[in-house]
Specification:
Low-confidence stretches: none
Distance between the termini: 22 Å
Strand content: 25-35%
Strand order of the largest sheet: 3-2-1-10-11-12-13
Number of helices: 6
Helix content: 10-25%
Number of strands: 13
Oligomer: single chain
Radius of gyration: 17 Å
Structural class: alpha/beta
Mean pLDDT: 93
Largest sheet: 7 strands, mixed
């Protein structure tokens, strides 16, 4: 069994300071093996925003793994954005923008989906797709969990533009086996399998909302706790209220079947 805590879109520079102790307490109570941070540590890629972000992750009670988001690269400094876009992220957070971690039953694969030539839209290239495909295909009993800031699928109501290469990635990975994608960026929470044009439902996608920022777009600040076993994934959403801290609001349970991910309630 591997337990993960998923947080995203912290946006330090617009953080809710009163919320941060509750977020740390919720993570400590859950006792995950790793915290997954799906990008957008900061509102702007400046030292004044990265420094409190670094202080926050230094207080995390367990190891963590992260990828950068589009807000983690400079916006107004065009030279820095084009020539060394990830310099501040590497200085304050971690040098590795595409880290990997293995547990007994999970393989965590970080994908850097930021695109310095676009303000918001992400991208994934062929080399990244092939690297993840090779990991999914490994027959070692581990479930591949992909970490990216940008989602690989948007529902119709989403106004943001889907990142370049996303559809191709989902089609390619559906041929390789079941996997999970953890992401942020949309500032809303979602858990659902994705079925490709080929009819395969091998992708279980989990979007976390904004875990600490005032930029929550009317949605509650939240985090997700994932319990991953050999039979599937259980996901618990925790949302924040000032008087209560983070409390459980919803639970989802999915199993891998020959036709892909299925809700365990549908299999009873």
């Amino acid at each position: 069994m591997t337990k993960l805590a998923l947080i995203a879109d912290l946006h330090f520079g617009t953080e809710m300071e009163d919320l941060l102790p509750h977020l740390l307490a919720a993570i400590e109570t859950a006792r995950p093996d790793h915290v997954v941070i799906a990008g957008d540590f900061v509102q702007r890629a400046r030292a004044a925003h990265f420094e409190p972000a670094r202080a926050f992750i230094d207080r995390l009670p367990v190891p963590w793994i992260s990828v950068p988001g589009n807000h983690d690269i400079p916006l107004y400094n065009i030279a820095a954005r084009l020539l060394w876009p990830r310099a501040a992220y590497r200085r304050y957070i971690t040098h590795d923008t595409e880290p990997t971690i293995q547990t007994d039953n999970v393989r965590l694969i970080g994908i850097d989906t930021t695109d310095p030539r676009r303000v918001q839209r992400g991208r994934i290239d062929q080399a990244q797709i092939e690297r993840v495909s090779a990991e999914i295909k490994k027959d070692d009993g581990r479930l591949t969990v992909i970490i990216a800031h940008h989602p690989f699928h948007h529902n119709p109501e989403v106004e943001k533009t889907l990142m370049r290469g996303a559809a191709h990635a989902l089609e390619a990975w559906s041929d390789c086996g079941p996997h999970v994608i953890l992401s942020g960026h949309l500032h809303s929470f979602l858990v659902e399998p994705f079925v490709t044009r080929k009819g395969a439902g091998q992708t279980l996608q989990i979007h976390c909302g904004s875990s600490a920022s005032t930029r929550h777009r009317g949605n509650p600040n939240d985090l997700a706790i994932l319990d991953i076993s050999g039979s599937g994934v259980d996901i618990t959403r925790h949302t924040f209220a000032p008087a209560k801290g983070f409390t459980q609001q919803a639970h989802y349970s999915y199993a891998v079947t020959p036709s892909g991910w299925k809700s365990k309630s549908d299999l009873k």
